[in-house]
Amino acid sequence: MQIGPRNLITDIPGLRVGNAQDTHIKTGTTVLTADAPFTASVHVMGGAPGTRETDLLAPDKLVPAVDALVLSGGSAFGLDAGSGVMDGLRAAGRGFPVGNQRVPVCPGAILFDLINGGDKDWTTNPYRALGRAAFDEASADFALGSVGAGTGALSMVHKGGLGSASAVLSDGRIVGALVAANPIGAVTTPESRHFWAAPFEVDGEFGGLGVNPTTDLGGLVPSPRSAAIHANTTIAIVGTDAPLTKTQCQRVAVAAHDGMARAILPSHTPYDGDLVFAISTGDGAQPVDDTLLLEIGHMAAMTLARAIARAIYHATPMPGDLLPCWSDAH
Known about the structure:
The protein is α+β, with helices and mostly antiparallel strands and 330 residues long. It is built from five helices and eleven strands, in the order ββββαβββαββαβαβα.
């Protein structure tokens, strides 16, 4: 598999990602935006999603494109990050035209990080400010690990984080993934540091340990206590510069969930709000054929699996952490 020059979703031309975080609270926000509005859809498979304006992304809904997507910590409080992003988009003159006004369109999704060792005793919801700060920081280069929406993320065994990866299709087009990995499930095999996503790793991008040689890998089930404490969620964006319609984006979002299931065991649980946005920066007036759509969906799944492992691999320690980082586990 060939990867893009950054191995980030921003290998797709025109995309930018910004992160903002508060390490005292142990939370943050990540924003994906672009030079121009882009086509987007979404698919939800978790049992506890938290979303903003995702109904607009159904193929039969009016709005043809969006200005940004928001991934945030904070559970329902984090949905307010979208308001800060709207402020930034409005200041930039962006938005869907309605009469003499422009209304920025920035759907979002949140993960649960309210019980992660951070101080949540705020008096004013911090997420609007975090959303605006993340939008203002958006660029082609961005950090991974304990940043943005991944700042306070946890998994069953290790700290979670923000991850990204990219791949080059057979025709030279790019597929990328961006994920805030905060699953109740595990991203490594039992009693080991081997990632479930190891079969898809490229050039040692998450440690190069390879596939766990142990044959018995079953029996990995979260305890009721861990489920109650770590009501989690993994939220992701996959994208391409291939010219997809809204309907085709939805199909890619469905396919990309396979990458989540390959990288996290178990995934799509009643406690997770697992969700994947899929986007296209290409002009969908002449949609790709089903053969290329198959390749894009397959590559989106593999790229998302890699991005999830990279999220955990790049996590860094903070005071008061409830779980160890992958880099500190033995």
